Amino acid sequence: MTTPSLLILPGDGIGPEVMAEVRKVIDWFGAKRDLTFDVSEDLVGGCAYDKHGTPLHDDTMAKAQEVDAVLLGAVGGPQYDSLDFSVKPERGLLRLRKEMDLFANLRPAQCFDALADFSSLKKDVVAGLDIMIVRELTSGIYFGEPRGIIEEGNERVGINTQRYTESEIDRVARNAFELAMKRNKKLCSMEKANVMESGVLWREVVTEVGKDYPEVELSHMYADAGAMQLCRWPKQFDVIVTDNLFGDLLSDAAAMLTGSLGMLPSASLGAPMANGRPKAMYEPVHGSAPDIAGQGKANPIACVLSFAMALRYSFDQGAEATRLEKAIETVLADGYRTADLLGEEGKDPVSTSQMGDAIIAAL
Amino acid sequence: MTTPSLLILPGDGIGPEVMAEVRKVIDWFGAKRDLTFDVSEDLVGGCAYDKHGTPLHDDTMAKAQEVDAVLLGAVGGPQYDSLDFSVKPERGLLRLRKEMDLFANLRPAQCFDALADFSSLKKDVVAGLDIMIVRELTSGIYFGEPRGIIEEGNERVGINTQRYTESEIDRVARNAFELAMKRNKKLCSMEKANVMESGVLWREVVTEVGKDYPEVELSHMYADAGAMQLCRWPKQFDVIVTDNLFGDLLSDAAAMLTGSLGMLPSASLGAPMANGRPKAMYEPVHGSAPDIAGQGKANPIACVLSFAMALRYSFDQGAEATRLEKAIETVLADGYRTADLLGEEGKDPVSTSQMGDAIIAAL
Ligand SMILES: CC(C)[C@H](C(=O)O)[C@@H](O)C(=O)O
Ligand SMILES: CC(C)[C@H](C(=O)O)[C@@H](O)C(=O)O
Fold it and tell me: How far is B123 from chain A (nearest CA, A)?
């Protein structure tokens, strides 16, 4: 069997810092667990624009298509805010998602025991929380045509199109049902079928797919009610499936609610490749955090956990993924905290690399 | 001066129950404060469909256009879920918003002191919270064309269009800046300018309008970050302005976070009529709550506070509005609680009409 390949795209802001810690972890697995990867690294986002005038060079795109998995840090920063829409850092990320056809974005919203106090929610509302949001990632209003800013009469009009085909809904729904089967067999689908026809179709197709999963308890909720219920009592959910735009807001809200934002990984999965592995990209849920970039303050755990997801979903190394996740639990239980996990406590935070080293030690 | 006119549309579910309490309040103002209204009542939503086969009869629409203000309860219920999209209860509400051109939906998210414990958020995060969300209400993906479910190849495609003109953004932005001027002079505008061209135009126009309000501190946030920040530390906001769909989710999340969902009113305002009053509709933020309808359990306060907003925004009776709001504070401070405000406390709740009577007594 050939060595599995990994393309690392650290990106902007705190991306490179947190990714440096992931590399330590990757090296550790090579040295100690005989799990070696063929690792290459490249640019995405603002740094790619700075070098190539585009947030994702065609060569990078081609590499991403060839490797077994992509690990991405984060993209964006204020210095790119005034760039034209077509070359903004985000376009690099969106191109990767679209061209790799990574239609299922898995975003666990988990509350780490050691951090339950850190949520803005009451402890009993979040302690032990463990839900999975499956967000459609390659369609909807992110990619629908027509789009743009046009002239009409004597003013400009901004236009975007939400567009979902039955097969696009079907495949992401199946993915969510499969996940629900491995978890607590509850799936809640969210849309605005009371207002949007694309939501009507979404609800119909999800209901239809549900017939193939009679064991899964399927429910439907309007996305606004879903936002409310996530804030009120998130533990009512197991798996949530929703579209690209609703998924963007709802998964971010859910992530923040756990109090563990700097801790949350994500996996974006596509169809199986020739070798049976799914096309895949892994990235932390947090952004590029330009305000703290380069200061060694960032929390590398979300990015390390994204690598754990890669071990599980791309490389069939569930046991090794669990080993890594347990190491992180140990480190947290031992009291290691980066600045974002400290709040008012007044303790001294550990740096990004100290946190990485602690994880290696715990491994 | 002619007697101001009010059209009451109780709607479905708990709508009629909570509206009955508002009528007591209206009668009180007539008897005790010499503030009389010419009140008429009609159907909207599922009950209108049951009687007329349409969720809003043309005659009702015409009446709504003529009166000084509309008071609406809530629409919808499970018995209407299988209705065709075009006659769903929600279409009645959406038609009122659109044809009355009620472009600015004001949704205060306030935490009532007596209820701070009731939020799923920690007390210090919500106590004293008082923000105002201004949601665009007559455009965007709710109304954009093309829309529908079409056949393409051998499958169906669900389509909706987000569409914003400069003037649509301009007018709602102005409204939000005006409100900010009367409050703490901070406005945060939310969109997804990193992903949607309609968001790019939104940000540009809001920035432009901001030049007319140099005293207001304007900021911009991506809507997903906005959802996060609302969950993390909502007190960072004063006024928020956002589009129809983001406003739907964000205002519901914010309302739930206050712990005072059954308490929150809203005002939907349009352009001034010939008599100088704005076109206006007032409604509680909560929905029709079919699960508790007809049981005398509903909390009428949101609907009563919606009438208070009508006094303030339509009838220039700010002092009387404050009188009514103070009466509600008194009632809460005295310990009156409908079932939704009790949680685990095990006290006996008061009924919908007992709450209404208590408000009258406090007045
Ligand atoms: C950076 C941005 C384009 C992206 C999105 O909107 O999808 C981000 O918010 C995310 O959720 O991954
Ligand atoms: C009932 C529904 C059509 C409505 C909306 O989506 O606008 C509601 O959720 C609201 O926020 O007023």
Answer: 9
Q: Please give the Cα distance from B227 to B250 (Å, whole number).
A: 6
User: Domain for residue B113, yes or no?
Assistant: no
Q: Are residues B242 and B271 in the same domain?
A: no
Select from B305, B313, B180, B164 the least CA-distant residue to B245: B164
Which residue stretches of A263-341 are H helix? 301-313, 318-333
Q: Are residues A236 and A152 in the same domain?
A: yes
> Is A291 annotated to bind ligand?
yes
B143, B242: one domain: yes
Residue B1 has pLDDT above 70, yes or no: no
- Co-location of B241 and B317 in the same domain: no
Over residues B182-209, the pLDDT tens digits come to: 999 999 999 999 999 999 999 999 999 9
Of A120, A156, A197, the CB nearest to B201: A156
A251 and A275 in a single domain? The answer is no
The pLDDT value given to residue B344: 63
Q: What is the pLDDT of residue B345?
A: 62
Domain boundary among B258, B286, B314: B258
What Å distances lie between residue B258 and A328, A333, B116, B124, B230, CA to CA? Answer: 34, 32, 7, 11, 10
Q: Peptide bond preceding A55: is omega within 30 degrees of 0, i.e. cis?
A: no
Asked if residue A215 and residue A160 are part of one domain, the reply reads yes
pTM of the full predicted structure?
0.96
CATH of the domain at B54: 3.40.718.10
User: Does the beta-carbon distance from B158 to A164 stay under 8 Å?
Assistant: yes
Two tokens at A236? Answer: 């009512």
* Domain finish residue from B217, B237, B258: B258
Q: Give the C-alpha separation, A177 to A276, whole Å.
A: 20
In a domain, B273, yes or no: yes
For residues A207 and A223, state if they share a domain.
yes
Of A93, A244, A250, best ligand 1 pocket probe by most atoms within 8 Å of the beta carbon: A93
Residue with tokens 């399927």: A218
Q: For an interface test with B, which of A194, A208, A258 has the most B Cβ atoms less than 10 Å from its Cβ?
A: A194
**Which structural domain, as residue segments, surrounds residue B204?**
120-258
pLDDT tens-digit readout, B282-301: 999 999 999 999 999 999 99
Token code pair at residue A161? 């199109």
User: Given ligand 1 and candidates B190, B191, B192, B195, which is best to mutate, with the most ligand atoms within 8 Å of its CB?
Assistant: B195
- What is the C-alpha to C-alpha distance for residues A239 and A242, in angstroms, rounded to an integer? 10
Please tell me the distance from the alpha carbon of residue B268 to that of residue B107, in angstroms, as a whole number: 9
Task: Tell me how many domains chain A contains.
Answer: 2
Whether B109 is in a domain gets the answer no
**Helix ranges restricted to H, chain A:** 15-33, 46-52, 58-66, 89-99, 123-126, 166-182, 197-210, 223-232, 244-257, 301-313, 318-333, 352-362
Task: Give pairs for A140-144: CB < 8 Å, separation 24+.
Answer: A140/A164, A140/A198, A140/A243, A140/A244, A140/A245, A141/A244, A141/A245, A141/B141, A141/B162, A141/B196, A142/A94, A142/A244, A142/A245, A142/B195, A142/B196, A143/A94, A143/A98, A143/A244, A144/B159
pLDDT in tens, chain A (363 residues): 689 999 999 999 999 999 999 999 999 999 999 999 999 999 999 999 999 999 999 999 999 999 999 999 999 999 998 899 999 999 999 999 999 999 999 999 999 888 888 889 999 999 999 999 999 999 999 999 999 999 999 999 999 999 999 999 999 999 999 999 999 999 999 999 999 999 999 999 999 999 999 999 999 999 999 999 999 999 999 999 999 999 999 999 999 998 888 899 999 999 999 999 999 999 999 999 999 999 999 999 999 999 999 999 999 999 999 999 999 999 999 999 999 888 666 678 999 999 999 999 999
Residue A277, domain member (yes or no)? yes
Q: Are residues A8 and A86 in the same domain?
A: yes
